[in-house]
Records
---
Amino acid sequence: MYFDNSATTLHKPAALKEKYVELLDSEKYGNPSRSGHALSQNSMMGIFRTKMDLAKIFHIADPNDIALTENASFGLNMIIKSLVKENDHVITTTTEHNSVLRPLYQSGADLDFLDFDEDYKVEFDKLPELIKENTKFIVTNHASNLLGNVNDLDKIHQLAQKYKLIMIIDMAQTAGCVDVDLSRYSNSIFVFTGHKSLYGPSGTGGIIKVGDFDFSNVFAGGSGINSFDKCHPKDFPAIFEVGTSNFLSQIAMDASLKFLLDTGIDNINEKIKNLTKRFYNGIKDIKAVKFYSKKPEGDFTGIVSFNIYDMDSAELSLILDENYNIQTRPGAHCAPLIHKHFATEDQGIVRFSFSYFNSEEEIDAATDAVKEIAENYMNK
């Protein structure tokens, strides 16, 4: 029973597997954007079809406002290193993944952090107190990979507009399971990954821009255009699409996107929410359990994070795996400032994260397992 979907979704739509096999068996797809022959054109059109369906999912008018990357970590590094300068001031949060934190640290920019309250809500109301003359960016996630919260993009964007900030949003945990019209957020950049709730292959992701930005080159190399120029093209999306991409996976991902469009993201979200509530309600009365994620009500993602008394999170996750065939994520989750907030740096936290492809039967089995482990631990 696989409950580590916030790391990567294990179960994918059948159509993705079929498409991947078809592409691997085919001899119809050459290197995209490098040649004028039919096989190259096939790949270019396949990638563009993926971008068109991504545009539908994110409600973007122009598919060319999407740059495809290897994953969200690549995308966030590209955007932060392309835009953030050493003399800039950046406001971010203590709920960020290291894919945001580490590039920001490397930038040398002046950083201020918004913390979260007892209801796991980031305190964006305090943003005005942090504004300086050189504040240029608000960088945050749409949802934490540990807390289960969903940040209010409308509120963040209103603040960004008021203080003339560029809004950079990490959508790794919400792309594909929370329906958002990104076209509503001007002067903003969104980064997503393909291998989580878009149910695509690993090695896929992208950047979506809403507005025009003065990007600087982070990588340089083959682009298929302007080959006699000494500098890599600065046009979007070419500035971030350097060299030969993981194009077969990018083409195959369109099968997953069509599954999402056909099923409906709201329907997917509703099922994940119901599974999350079922699991939370099943373990909430266990005295040994301490929660570190949002109560599943209102806006939330498919995450329940907790510990059993002082048991090391790695030990609990190992027992679940070896004795119950239940896969979860222990440890720090690449979110060090959350653990600093909770003082769980040594113990870590166990995270259950759910997918559209999980079942109620699996949830009930996991509930029984946690109850049994907690009872055994208390009776030691």
---
Amino acid sequence: MFQWLTTEGSELKSHIPGSTNYITDGRNRKKYGLEGLPGDSKPFPSNPHFKSERILSEELRNDIYHRVVVKKQSVRAVSTDTGVDMRRVAAVCRLVELEKQWREQGKPLALPYARAVHEMVPTTKLQRDPRLQRERPHEQINDLPAHRLTDAQIFYPVSESRQFTRVDAGRVFSAAPARLRGDDQDDQPWEVVRDLNLGERRIEAVGKGDSEQRVLLPADVRIPHPHLITLESERAANPDSLRDVWRAHEKRLKEGNEAEEKRKQRKQEAHDRQVSRVQPRSSRFEFRIKDVVVSKETTGTDGRNAKAPGRRYGVPRSDRKKGQVKIPTYVLV
């Protein structure tokens, strides 16, 4: 050990600012020079399958907060431009806002610890060129978790002359009848999402009662950024007019954001119509009253359906019954 500390380990005593200090970095510096092997994120030499995940740099984190909070850009647009997942963009805005509140309250911040962590793990830098920022994303922003309906293996016979698409596969997984030929064949994914937000299209439902479920939409529609599919197809089809392609992409993104805002506004208005607000005089409390509709479609046959408030009113809980499992059997992530 002491021999390693005096030979190869001595190079790891002080690291180069702005880079990691892994054992593999010392070996790569000998082999590839002072810069080391670019893009190497394997800290353990004996475990090449483990890769160190990148974190956001301070500059990129502050730029995301400035775009969303100050410039009022949409989370979807910021996620597309910076290559950061929308959930991480929202988390960055919340954490930066919390950090500002702590500074105003005079609470101490663990800045030395943060600097040490940023020196230990690889970071994603803020690129001044927006094109480079998009070409070098921080993470995959269009990841889609596996849906529970796709777990089953289904053997569905299809004739060779029929064009079987992802839309048809979703209907098969949902046990929905086959669609007619020519229905929604040429619709782009972003057009489907826009029509759903505007209320011009509804997701078909199959089943009755408690067994009712929505038809599974194709993955191109369920991903966080369906407009990127159209962007890539147009870039491949029109490589000589990229400026027009990007203009059309920005226009689609703007239309999608406007449709999303209209959907949220329409949902809020529907909620306000169902709730009566009463605030007595000389009181700081406001009572919000919502009428409960007790029917088979809302509360269900056993009174425990989640489609209406007060679903357990007058119905005893089942946790006291014999044989009920009271320990958690799964964790919601």
---
Amino acid sequence: MSRRARPRLRDVRRAYHLLGECLEHREDSTAWRAHLLTGLQAMTGARVALYLHVDAPLSAVEQVSETLASGFLDAREQALWAHYQATEAHRDDLFHRGFYTRAGGSSRLVTRSLYDVVERSAWQRSRHYGDYVAACGLGDRITSSLSLPTAGPRCEQTLVLHRDAGDGAFPAPARYLVRLVHHGLSELQGRLLTLPGTREDLAGLTPRMREVLMGLLAGESEKQIASRLGLSRHTVNRHVQRVYRHYDVTSRGRLLAKLRSGGGVQSLSPR
């Protein structure tokens, strides 16, 4: 690493401190991811930071899920970027295709700056740059991706940081710091940090919904849950329906299938 690219010791300490702060929200994936993104923005000077899962990248069934964003200026920018991620990025975007081609099927962490992947002139002539990136006032980019363990198609956990176009390139140490944080994240998640969509993820659940979910996962009937919690069956059914909506399912069977990769139900107890 060149002297210019070497981060200051205090920035390395900030990176580890950020990971420690994320652990304070370990069971709520929305909370720790939001804190991670704002921390990375402050650390690197990014205007926009995104967390997302890219499922089956570069295939005909590629899709983006579990997206969280920080830093878009207004709803128009956010809607434009959502359209780009959902329908455009995987088609012929030079950066997207170049990045995930180089990442391959490896489980190793890959962190790249924009012009490590594409030539500046080709990128700035591209439709994707003009219609989406420049239209949102964004310029330089750092992307970091890691394959998550999954029984299904390849799933890449991806962090993306965008510099405001008026701020020029990222400082030289920024890529190293992003890689350092993502590597630290990989050591924590699934063990100490809850991944979004897993059984342990309590993001958006009220304490009562968590108690009802614990009963569903333990095989209790709604009548048994109502008796245990001292609630009416009608009230329990209302909470059950809210749990289903939260996980975007319509039945207990689909709920169990969606959360099949999680651990034990004891971590679901409200604190």
